[in-house]
Design goal:
Blueprint: H1 16-35, H2 42-49, H3 53-59, H4 63-81, H5 83-88, H6 92-107, H7 111-121, H8 136-151, H9 164-182, H10 189-208, H11 215-228
Helix pairs in contact: 1-2, 2-3, 4-6, 4-8, 6-8, 6-10, 8-9, 9-10, 9-11
Length: 255
């Protein structure tokens, strides 16, 4: 359960409720890093944070919701971190490379922690999956960054692809995230190189999309992901015909 809304964000100091929520989240992140995700309990988190177990559950329904809080915090920090590069650069490659490298910078302190809980996040049925309904807020925030990347570039982006390309760019970022988790080079140097080269290829692809003959290919790639990637589609009807269909099979709205 999220914290109570103590009023509009008018720049005032965080309320006691907000401070308590942040303390619980910070404590959880530390214990996840020290003990591992599976071995850390809500009771242990509450004890270390100096709050009651009931209070911990008031702010977060369980460990999975703590991870959602972590996702949201990373997404918010990323939104702030990219402002400078998006304000400075108009070249699409530079904008995208800056956005991807800013994400790597923010994620750096959490590398070992990410390795530990990856096996849970990789489960398509887990609320920790980046494609889960529980992760929607962070996912929407991340996609909005890529919308901003395209909106401020001098590269002409076809109107019919303005909704499709940001989602594909976010999926590419998820690929970078997966590589980063397994990257053991010093300073995750190869991940930064991948971000730069990926930005270069993406920029070239977007530039080529101005040719009408290539636009159907972009849409087909997008449809392929939305139809088959777990978490981006609604449940399909039971092939045995038992029970009502859980969904219509059409791509799920990520936004």
């Amino acid at each position: 359960m999220p914290a109570k809304n103590d009023g509009p964000d008018d720049g005032a100091a965080p309320s006691k409720s907000e401070q308590t929520r942040a303390l619980i989240l910070q404590t959880a992140m530390r214990l996840f890093q020290e003990r591992g995700y599976d071995r850390t309990t809500m009771r242990a988190i509450a004890k270390e944070a100096g709050v009651s177990v009931g209070n911990a559950y008031y702010y977060f329904e369980g460990k999975e919701h703590l991870i959602q809080g972590f996702y949201d915090r990373i997404a918010t920090e990323h939104q702030v971190a990219v402002r400078e590069v998006l304000a400075r650069e108009t070249d699409l490659e530079a904008r995208l490379a800056g956005v991807l490298k800013a994400w790597l910078d923010i994620a750096t302190p959490y590398h070992e922690f990410a390795v530990q809980f990856f096996k849970n996040a990789a489960d398509p049925d887990s609320p920790l999956s980046p494609f889960s309904p529980e992760s929607k807020h962070a996912r929407v925030e991340a996609i909005s960054v890529h919308r901003a990347v395209l909106a401020g570039t001098r590269t002409k982006v076809p109107e019919e692809l303005r909704d499709t390309l940001p989602e594909l760019m976010w999926l590419a970022q998820m690929g970078l995230c997966l590589y980063w988790i397994f990257d053991r080079t010093e300073g995750r140097e190869r991940s930064y190189r991948l971000a730069e080269r990926g930005a270069r290829l993406t920029a070239r692809g977007v530039a080529l999309s101005r040719f009408r003959v290539l636009r159907p290919l972009v849409r087909e790639v997008h449809e392929l992901f939305t139809e088959f990637l777990p978490g981006m589609t609604k449940a399909l009807p039971d092939p045995a015909g038992k029970g009502a269909p859980a969904g219509d099979g059409r791509p799920q709205d990520l936004g």
